[in-house]
Specification:
Elements (H helix, E strand, L loop, with lengths): L14 H9 L3 H7 L4 H5 L14 H10 L7 E5 L5 H8 L4 E6 L2 H6 L8 E3 L12 E7 L7 H14 E11 L3 H10 L9 H11 L4 E6 L3
The structure holds S-adenosylmethionine (SAM).
Amino acid sequence: METDVLTDLNCKSDRSKRLAMRRSMTPTLRAEHARYGQEYFDGPTGYGGYYYDGRHESTVRQMIERYELTPESNVLEVGCAKRFMLYEFHRLGIVNVQGCDISEYAVLHGKPEITDRLSVMSADRLDFPDDSFDLVYSIDVLHNLNPDASERAIQEIMRVSRRAAFIQVDSYDTPAEQRNLSDWVVTIKTVRSKDDWRAMFRRLGYSGEYYFKVFTF
Ligand SMILES: C[S@@+](CC[C@H](N)C(=O)[O-])C[C@H]1O[C@@H](n2cnc3c(N)ncnc32)[C@H](O)[C@@H]1O
């Protein structure tokens, strides 16, 4: 089911300057971003320094309520980056959190309190048994996989979730939004319209919730 009840987490400040910079990025720099290392997270052309600032707290509180999580619940974030959001679940009393990300840099450089809950792992090959988690969520990750792998990742999310799932992906409705998306998300490998994602979710029998982030600027 499509939902817009969860807050869009993206910081919208200074986007036009950053968009111009991304449009002029060299192929070499794009390839560097695709390695999800220091430049992507903390370099001037990426997030520009991605640090914990508590911005996820209200969204996480909404998710705890919406998905009826208790201190005994198990939660997995797929593509958790420096795990600021996952840390918030942990801080708010959901102790059994797990996270995975393809980026070794993110796993090594994020919030240290929950480093032991993390694995370097690709979203399309989750090394967890079936039905392991009460909530599996993935935010702004799956469009960074190629189309086949993004489908496998959705199947993996369904497989390891025993109850709830939430997926947010970057998408578009209009040609202008499509161009913004391709320019802004330099690591994108699957540029799908909202309707195409919806059709894919239906075809795969994905019964969790989802939300599309759109770049209107
Ligand atoms: C835009 S960031 C989003 C990070 C985090 N979910 C958030 O909302 O802040 C995209 C993340 O996807 C991760 N990623 C890219 N490809 C991946 C894959 N195949 N499997 C798991 N994570 C992946 C990147 O390392 C990066 O941390």
